[in-house]
């Protein structure tokens, strides 16, 4: 028996920390909670696309661990970024061969930032891979992704938890933030200062959207992992899974969203 509830899940950006999203998704689906719509920014857009394609969370983790993501990047001869992301599209095409939002098993929306207009752009139809690349295009590190006449960078710059595409179209919204920031007693260098400032800005636009979520899942301790620390992939997955199983135990009302529930609207 399937639930008639429309359940939306918004997945934040956060670099490699986004692997924790896969653990969250595994815990939710094992508990019978299946999203009917997904939105994501940056790492959340990548995890969301693979999940909406039909890959199981464990399978996505295996793909990430076995794939040398950075070999698909090449130096950019440009004043706007150090690396180009164009060749990363070849990696996505291995697993998203159709390159079409309409071919996904679960509807997906990804957020990107229009750097010239200073606006968030949402993509949910047409070509799939370039919007995902745009959503995860870290400004200053990568050349912007051009779609049409728009120059696009990481969606987290303006919206690191894209609940808006789910608001009003889903009965329940689950927000998942993987970009938690720990307290820091010593900022020892300029790199740490800039990185911390960027994460603080992104977290501000996450927490400003928290009230739009019926459930908000934020696994603790993720701030202790580097945003590019791919060697910690399995640990990040485990943090997301373990915390979400504990979250479900402590918030049993979320099980009302499970597939054996026949409600069709909020109580």
Automatic annotation (TrEMBL):
CDD domains xrefs: Pat_PNPLA6_PNPLA7_NTE1_like
Q: Which UniProt keywords apply?
A: Hydrolase, Lipid degradation, Lipid metabolism
Domain annotation PNPLA: ranges: 9-167
Which GO terms of the molecular function aspect are on file? hydrolase activity
Segments carrying motif DGA/G? 154-156
Q: Which InterPro entries match?
A: Acyl_Trfase/lysoPLipase, NTE, PNPLA_dom
Q: Where is the active site?
A: 42, 154
The GO biological-process annotations, alphabetized, read as: lipid catabolic process
For the motif GXSXG, what are the positions? 40-44
Q: Where is this motif: GXGXXG?
A: 13-18
Q: The organism sits in which domain of life?
A: Bacteria
Q: Name one Pfam family in it.
A: Patatin
Looking up PANTHER family in the UniProt record yields: NEUROPATHY TARGET ESTERASE/SWISS CHEESE D.MELANOGASTER, SLR0060 PROTEIN
Protein name (Swiss-Prot/TrEMBL): NTE family protein
Name the species this protein comes from: Algoriphagus chordae
Q: Where is the organism placed in the taxonomic lineage, from the top?
A: Bacteria, Pseudomonadati, Bacteroidota, Cytophagia, Cytophagales
């Amino acid at each position: 028996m399937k639930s008639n509830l429309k359940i939306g899940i918004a997945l934040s950006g956060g670099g490699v920390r986004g692997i924790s999203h896969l653990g969250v998704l595994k815990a939710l689906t094992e508990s019978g909670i299946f999203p009917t719509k997904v939105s994501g920014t940056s790492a959340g857009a990548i995890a969301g696309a693979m999940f909406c394609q039909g890959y199981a969370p464990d399978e996505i983790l295996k793909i990430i661990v076995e794939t040398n993501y950075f070999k698909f990047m090449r130096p950019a001869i440009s004043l706007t970024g150090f690396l180009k992301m164009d060749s990363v599209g070849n990696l996505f095409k291995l697993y998203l061969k159709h390159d079409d939002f309409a071919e996904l098993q679960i509807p997906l929306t990804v957020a990107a930032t229009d750097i010239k207009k200073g606006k968030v752009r949402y993509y949910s139809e047409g070509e799939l891979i370039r919007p995902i690349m745009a959503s995860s295009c870290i400004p200053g590190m990568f050349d912007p992704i051009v779609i049409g006449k728009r120059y696009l960078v990481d969606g987290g710059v303006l919206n690191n938890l894209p609940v808006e595409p789910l608001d009003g179209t889903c009965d329940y919204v689950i927000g998942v933030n993987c970009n938690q920031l720990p307290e820091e007693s010593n900022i020892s260098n300029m790199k740490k200062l800039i990185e911390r400032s960027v994460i603080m800005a992104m977290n501000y636009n996450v927490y400003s959207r928290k009230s739009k979520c019926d459930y908000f899942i934020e696994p603790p301790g993720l701030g202790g992992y580097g945003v590019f620390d791919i060697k910690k992939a399995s640990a990040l997955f485990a943090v997301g899974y373990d915390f979400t199983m504990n979250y479900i135990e402590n918030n049993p009302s979320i099980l009302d969203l499970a597939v054996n529930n026949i409600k069709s609207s909020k109580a």
